């Protein structure tokens, strides 16, 4: 097998990487190695020996021994056999960063000898399905690499197999990855899936145990959209909860882990809309929300009202947290700790909204009817009902630019704030710098009865 692509992508005169040579090894066991590669982003390189070289896949997340976990694996150029021992720094250029061996050992296919195993792996690459047994220090057992039908010849899934089982048509949860979801930006469904995989550790605390209303965009943001609450068809590893709502029993999706998050995104759920409450206390929300909805009003007026709400809440020593809606407004959340009912939460929100509207009567309104708002910003506190949903923090929105509902520091909520700048491409620099600014919303919660008494005094 030629190593021309490997050689062309590197300056081997300055890099300490092995030279582009094919191994002359005639016998012995076939080896594998997984290298931890800190390049532009951390990923793991899986390499399997065949034809005197190392067949290679870049895996964005750490390989897992859990059969329920599927890892995207991008097939890359063959590497020299001697790369199996390489550790060190790759200088500037292709693959720049540090490389360390994460796991290594030997592999077999169907207990065949090395020569037959090598033949089987080459056949598997051609067919798009490899099944092999790793004898490693960290990974030991049966694995599969399965090429995605619609993701191009280089996109595969790495899956830990339950010993003795076969891959059934992994359970392949990712489909139509090349479909354009944002035409102007040329962002695909695959880009959406990669975003949710990358942001999963931050968004999952805001989704776990919360019934999910599915708003599906199977053909992207310019195609037909529809809501699906009742989820009947789903893999066995996807959890749902049956809830009686408006005298109907509905099976709501529960996004409990990365796999079910990607399952939802694979259905075309660009946006994620969870309940305010969790399954163990369905009628007690973890937080309440003010939804500042401009609908044609100035966004700077939205900012002024958000600041006014923040000031009012500070006056009564109530913490509040702001995020962009990802669309045209702002959301302000107050932690409740699942200690109160939706009715109690809504009563509190209505009282605060009344105070804010009195302070800024020229730019704010409590009028629900769009035709009667007279160009003012609507302070919507009626989202705080059982069964209502709102875009989660870090949810993508089905709008041009692929904006993300993004938590803010209060010092950022000022004139000139532009919610359009928070997108799937910019969010990670914020997360790296500040972490999840919305995590306190899931905290202990306020003393609501005592706070309501203080508010009623302010209204007299």
- Name the helix and strand elements from N-terminus to C-terminus, one letter apiece: HEEEEEEHEEEEEHEEEEHEEHEEHEEEHH
Q: Looking at CATH, which topology of the largest domain would you report?
A: DNA primase, PRIM domain
End-to-end Cα distance: 84 Å
Tell how many strands the DSSP assignment holds: 22
Structure overview:
- It is a single chain.
- With 460 residues, the chain is an alpha+beta fold.
- Helix content is 21%, strand content 28%.
- It has three domains: 4-160, no CATH class; 180-279, no CATH class; 287-459, DNA primase, PRIM domain, CATH 3.90.920.10.
- It contains eight helices and 22 strands.
- The longest helix has 18 residues, at 342-359.
Write the layout of secondary structure elements.
Blueprint: H1 4-8, E1 31-38, E2 42-50, E3 53-59, E4 70-80, E5 88-90, E6 97-108, H2 114-127, E7 129-136, E8 140-147, E9 155-160, E10 180-182, E11 187-188, H3 189-203, E12 211-216, E13 226-228, E14 239-245, E15 248-254, H4 258-266, E16 271-274, E17 287-293, H5 299-315, E18 321-324, E19 330-335, H6 342-359, E20 364-365, E21 377-380, E22 407-408, H7 427-434, H8 448-459
Parallel strand pairs: 20-21
Antiparallel strand pairs: 1-2, 1-6, 2-3, 3-4, 4-9, 5-6, 6-7, 7-8, 8-9, 10-11, 12-13, 12-15, 12-16, 14-15, 17-19, 17-21, 18-19, 18-22
């Amino acid at each position: 097998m030629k190593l021309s692509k490997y050689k062309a992508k590197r300056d081997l005169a300055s890099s300490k990487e092995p030279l582009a040579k094919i191994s002359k090894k005639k016998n012995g066991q076939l080896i594998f190695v997984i290298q931890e590669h800190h390049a532009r982003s951390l990923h793991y390189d899986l390499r399997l020996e065949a034809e005197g070289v190392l067949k290679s896949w870049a895996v964005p997340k750490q390989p897992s021994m859990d059969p329920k976990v599927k890892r995207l694996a991008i097939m890359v150029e063959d590497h020299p056999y001697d790369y199996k021992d390489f550790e060190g720094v790759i200088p500037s250029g292709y693959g720049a960063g540090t490389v360390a061996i994460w796991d290594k050992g030997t592999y077999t296919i169907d207990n065949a000898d090395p020569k037959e195993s090598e033949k089987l792996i080459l056949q598997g690459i051609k067919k798009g399905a490899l099944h092999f047994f790793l004898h490693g220090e960290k990974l030991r057992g049966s694995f599969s690499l399965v090429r995605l039908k619609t993701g191009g010849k280089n996109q595969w899934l790495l899956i830990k197999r339950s010993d003795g089982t076969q891959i059934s048509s992994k359970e392949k949860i990712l489909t139509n990855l090349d479909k354009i979801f944002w035409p102007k930006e040329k962002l695909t469904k695959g880009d959406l899936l990669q975003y949710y995989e990358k942001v999963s550790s931050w968004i999952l605390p805001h989704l776990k145990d919360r019934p999910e209303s599915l708003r599906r965009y199977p053909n992207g943001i310019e195609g037909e959209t529809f809501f699906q609450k009742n989820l009947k068809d789903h893999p066995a590893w996807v959890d749902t909860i049956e809830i009686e709502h408006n005298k109907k029993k509905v099976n709501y999706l529960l996004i409990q882990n990365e796999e079910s998050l990607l399952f939802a995104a694979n259905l075309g759920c660009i946006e994620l809309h969870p309940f305010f409450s969790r399954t163990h206390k369905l009628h007690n929300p973890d937080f309440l929300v003010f939804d500042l909805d401009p609908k044609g009003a100035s966004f700077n007026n939205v900012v002024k009202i958000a600041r006014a709400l923040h000031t009012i809440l500070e006056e009564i020593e109530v913490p509040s947290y702001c995020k962009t809606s990802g669309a045209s407004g702002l959301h302000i959340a107050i932690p409740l700790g699942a200690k109160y009912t939706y009715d109690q939460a809504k009563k509190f929100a209505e009282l605060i909204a009344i105070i804010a509207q009195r302070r800024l009567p020229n730019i704010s309104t409590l009028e629900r009817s769009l035709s009667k708002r007279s160009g003012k910003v609507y302070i919507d506190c009626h989202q705080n009902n059982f069964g209502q949903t709102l875009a989660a923090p870090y949810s993508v929105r089905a709008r041009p630019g692929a904006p993300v509902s993004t938590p803010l520091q209060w010092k950022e909520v000022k004139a000139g704030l532009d919610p359009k700048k928070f997108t799937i491409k910019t969010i990670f620099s914020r997360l790296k710098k500040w972490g999840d600014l919305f995590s306190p919303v899931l905290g202990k919660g306020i003393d609501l009865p005592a706070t309501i008494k203080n508010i009623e005094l302010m209204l007299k």
